[in-house]
Amino acid sequence: MSGAAPAPGAPGPPGPPSAPGVLRIGNASGFYGDRFDALREMLTGGPLDVLTGDYLAELTMLILGRDRMKNPDAGYAKTFLRQLEEGLGLAHERGVRIVANAGGLNPAGLATAVRELAGRVGVPVRVAHVEGDDLLTGDPPARRTGTGAGAGTGTWGEGVLTANAYLGGAGIAACLRAGADVVITGRVTDAALVTGPAAARFGWDPETPEGRDALAGAVVAGHVLECGTQATGGNYSFFTRHDIRRPGFPLAEIHADGSAVITKHPGTGGVVDVGTVTAQLLYETGGARYAGPDVTARLDTVRLAQDGPDRVRITGVRGEPPPPTLKAGLTRIGGWRNEVVFVLTGLDIDAKARLVREQVEDALAKRRPAEVRWELARTDHPDAGTEETASALLRLVVRDSDPEAVGRAVGAAAVELALASYPGFHVSAPPGKGAPYGVFEAVYLDAADVTHTAVLPDGRRVTVPHPVRTRALEPVPETADLLPDPLPAGLPTRRAPLGLVAGARSGDKGGDANVGVWARDEDGWRWLAHELTTERFRQLVPESRELTVVRHPLPNLRALNFTVEGLLGEGVAAQHRFDPQAKALGEWLRARHLDIPEVLL
Questions:
Q1: Residue 476 three-state SS
Q2: What SS3 class is residue 270?
Q3: pTM
Q4: Are 104 and 76 in contact (CB under 8 A)?
Q5: What are the E-state strand segments in 123-189?
Q6: For residue 352, what are the contacts with CB-CB under 8 A and spacing of at least 6?
Q7: Which of 174, 244, 176, 215 has its CA nearest to residue 462?
């Protein structure tokens, strides 16, 4: 168990410089809204060469797009600028370079704001930024050449709010090689914040096998760092075994061959062990091939080993040429949505739910919204000691392209029943007018049609070449040789939760959900690999029974990664289900019961 974190605001010693041949890259943000003090904590907690911050997610791009509609000069993460008011001076004093994708939809605007801030606080910094990801303002070929739904000649489709290609780290590397102290990007891959500085430091050639392997190692390290404290015990299945009240942010010691050690500053909270790193490696990934603009990393080659307290070494990563296409994310306003939650208390919960549902459906018959969904959550307990614990929640969600269809009509249908429905009628909040919801869509376009540009500290614009050698992305098929020998047949079993022998972490990729499940020891893996088939997964997660579920074994990690296609509808902004980002889907799976060999329990 790690010691307590230092008091907030108390600077620690800068520590010794990085060892020769080692680049220390830290993370201070996993999303827009992460711990505000993290940037200062990372700069004062120990030695660093580069500090990164990931501020962008699919939902964030929609939020920034709506900001830009109100103010063309907006579109970037304002929190980052406030963090720099103190952090810029600290970074300058300690010789730490800062790389962040906080530029969002307006990296040039944020770069200008950072220069203005530097002038006000009297810190001499060289600021650069990366452009080319914004397909709505980019060169015409990028706007024309799309594949997949929503792409069209001369446009990305009706009502597109943002359209951004996921760039790699080469533009960041060019800025750093030109002497930048701060590099601002828009939409790059999360791992690019690490591959860019690492490539700038070590000069890897992505056209050689050795260079691709090293880049792939940096991609894996970057994926571990990108979500901040998820690598140091946050959101961890086995959280009760560690003190994670205030986990420290992670850092990676990257070596010239692309291998790395994941760790954190001394004295900070949380834990770094093989389990926490495995959990983050499985997060929001799919099969064995983890594709990006720089390189395709083979996750089935990753090897993890404990390298001391709060230190995990990553070795063996192999890289392949990246695909010839770039992923792009499109966001648009998908329609209008409203929600009413009816509170049902005491006896006859099912009958009460049936009555109010029939009443509301009758009231909506004249202009029924395009989508009407009901969900009854039985949160009630018998003979409960409080009214709240005696109550269940009946949730009504409606959607339509017409705001009137989900607005006043829905509110009236609910409110007018206040004295004419089930006993104890009330709702959790007064119905509103309805609100717009967003849609995320992934499309793919030829990398050559995107102009990746590094804008250097002196203002020069440098076009960043795309990799010459590419390889079409193909899944690694599951074969028998990927699986371990099963446990002996006939072992006594006990009905118990899966989570007693396996950890899990889940998340979203557009409308798909990802669930990574791993065993903590070899016997557990021998059982898990053969027990948790796609058929068993569908039994344990009934929502997935009519959907495509793909299983990806990762033997080196003793893990299985599942992709559930379409579970999240049109993405997180559409709020298709109770848990719209599938954040807790893995924990629900761990809570499901099945027959487990007693030797594992």
A1: coil
A2: coil
A3: 0.92
A4: yes
A5: 127-131, 160-165, 182-184
A6: 344, 422, 423, 424
A7: 174
